[in-house]
Amino acid sequence: MRAVIQRVNEASVSIEGRRQSSIGRGLLVLLGVENGDTDEDIEWLAGKVARLRVFPDAQGVMNLAVGEVGGEVLVVSQFTLLASTRKGNRPSYSRAAPPEAARPLYERFVAALSQQLGTPVATGQFGAMMQVHLVNDGPVTILMDSRLRE
Fold first, then answer.
1. Could you report the per-residue pLDDT of 49-97, keeping only the tens digit for each?
2. The domain that contains 67 carries what CATH number?
3. Pairing of strands 122-123, 131-145
4. How many domains does the chain have?
5. Would you call 109 a catalytic residue per the annotation?
6. Which residue among the candidates 6, 20, 55, 78 is catalytic per the annotation?
7. Which of these is catalytic: 6, 20, 79, 109?
8. Which end of the chain is more exposed for a tag (fewer CB within 10 A), N or C?
9. DSSP notation for 76-133
10. Across all residues in the chain, what is the average pLDDT?
11. Domain range spanning residue 87?
12. Is residue 111 part of a domain?
């Protein structure tokens, strides 16, 4: 699984001009599910996102996790995170899990993250063409890959 995690002041997802969901201060997580991802990848990534210390403490040091600041989380599926541009100029998405495999993993990730945080997690709509609006705070953007575990 690959994720782009952005600390935001606000974020929302719209589908066909209608707002699907929105959050205030918190994290926007763009999530790509790769062929071969497992529940182990879900648990590792959900735990890392929930414990990611990217919010400032009283001294202005990024030392607090989203739950510690009362923040919200929005998770949006994004298979294009698995793009390969190795050959030519048209990206290949062969590493991305097909929708019938990716959807249940995406849903389990959302559930695992919600459980880790102890609060509901907002989502986009899996497989839909979405417009994502955000105000990145910092900017702070973190990349994570459950296969690299850096």
1. 999 999 999 999 999 999 999 999 999 999 999 999 988 899 999 999 9
2. 3.50.80.10
3. unpaired
4. 1
5. no
6. 78
7. 79
8. C
9. EE-GGGG-B-SSSSSPB-TTBPPHHHHHHHHHHHHHHHHHHHTS--EE--TTS--EEE
10. 96
11. 2-145
12. yes
pLDDT score recorded for residue 48: 97
80 is catalytic: yes
91 vs 112: CA distance, rounded Å: 30
Give the Å distances, CA to CA, from 24 to 38, 71, 123, 137.
31, 7, 13, 11
Q: Is 78 a catalytic residue?
A: yes
Q: Is residue 130 part of a domain?
A: yes
Write down the residue that tokens 């509901």 correspond to.
Answer: 120
Place of tokens 């739950």: 67
Joined tokens for residue 32 = 């790509």
pLDDT tens-digit series, residues 105-124 = 999 999 999 999 999 999 99
The per-residue pLDDT for 51 is 97
Residue at 150 is within a domain = no
CA 1 – CA 122 distance, rounded (Å): 19
